[in-house]
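Q: I have 417 residues here and want to know how they pack in 3D. Can you give me a structure?
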Amino acid sequence: MIEFQSFCAPVSEAHRRQAEKAWQTVNTSDYLFMDLPLNKKHLKSSQNLVAELRRKGQQLVVVGMGGSSAGARAAVDFFGDQVPMGTIQFWDNTDEDSLNWRFSRLAENAQFLFVSKSGQTIEVLALFSWLEKKLKEHGKFDPARLHVLTEDRPSQLLALAQTYGLRVDFWPMGLSGRFSVLSEVGLVPMLFAGIPVEQVLVGAQWSLRQVSLVRELVALSLASFERNEWLTVFWGYSDFVGGFGDWLVQLWSESLGKRWTRHNSPAPRVSTPLFCRGSSDQHSLLQQFVEGAKDKWIIALDFGPIRAGGDSAFKGASNGQSVVPTAPLSLMSALKRVSLTELLQAQSESVLGALEQIGVSTAQMRMSARTPEALGALLQLMLMWTVTLGEALEINPGDQPGVELGKKILTQRLAGC
């Protein structure tokens, strides 16, 4: 379902032992996201809520920030060509110009789902207030169109829901936002969009069995940090993985970018994630990757079979052969013989081969096809990889003190207004 091939120097046994120890910690700890692929309770409650949403309308607006919406958006984007246009929107920014434009194009019976783990997310509360005002101005305010997903504890959002008599579904207690994609937080938008969630969960269950792969990914990451590669580049060769890239950047950054270890000592440095897009970024960032500092680990994410044999992603590049005909007529003749899909795959392999040849660390992650099972496998695998890497570094991958500091400063500024 997912294959990973590394073109870096072999990892040391010390890194493998470190990864093994970290996995044992994850496997024996209370990481709630590890139970989600097998827990039918979240699927049933999601189906119940979606049934009500669909009885009331054929359009859903998800209002949530960060992990409250990024995973769901990643899933919907993954099947962007199969979800009817306008079925679902994600409001995750307080840009009023954009919101006014979106509001003007809403369906008459659009439903709104306000998602916030804490129920105190400033942007979600602000968007609730803004939407209430807009709907009242247009004579369309109906509390039955508003729904809330939050933790079962006192909060501003829960108080609003109680005031207006809104339906409230509860966020699984103790589950961090960025790890919530396979709970109601992600399943409800997926189901509303028509994504076969049961198959997504089957794919996630596949990843639960890929312990050796997770340990190898963690060991490769540790080796990358030891080589002083401080930019981990995920290069998606499909337009349908852009949302996944946004989700992954948040997952990696918030889980691994820490100042202190669990023992209150300075945390080790980790890489900054960057997501690139297909052939487009070959005409922008590639120049810096090729001639800039060799401080990057570049991982291509695409679809199709792994090229068998050898230690190079693209034989032509490693053998010093030209991968593009030099004469214009022969180039056009070659292009007529290949599909755009074959061209995109060749571009991915050519870039990896060129980077490998000049000493840039590379790898390739491939899914056999863009299926619900592949989506579930990819999401769960990245969760397991990131959290296990955090444990290997002896940091807490579940907290986000840097984000909380920003929220505190914002609250203080608003209080002074």
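Q: Anything worth noting?
A: The beta strands are 2-6, 60-63, 88-91, 111-116, 146-150, 167-170, 231-236, 272-277, 296-303, 361-367. Residues 306-325 have pLDDT under 50 and may be disordered.
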